[in-house]
Specification:
mainly alpha
Length: 63
């Protein structure tokens, strides 16, 4: 699965859209939220955000 799909955004999303999607998903899937599978999903969300929020890493990922 690609990082854009994980964050439920389009590949040409702005930094503000990435941040908003990340915050929304973190609230929903945080391990303390009580969802059984949230730990694995939360880790994927964190990884996707770390790459897509960094301009250099995002450029490399897109290639």
């Amino acid at each position: 699965m690609n990082y854009y799909d994980i964050l439920e955004i389009s590949p040409n999303a702005s930094d503000d859209v990435i941040k908003a999607a990340y915050r929304s998903l973190v609230k929903k899937y945080h391990p303390d939220a009580g969802i059984e599978t949230s730990g694995a999903k939360f880790s994927k969300i964190e990884e996707a955000y770390n790459v897509l929020s960094d301009e250099t890493r995002r450029r490399e990922y897109d290639l």
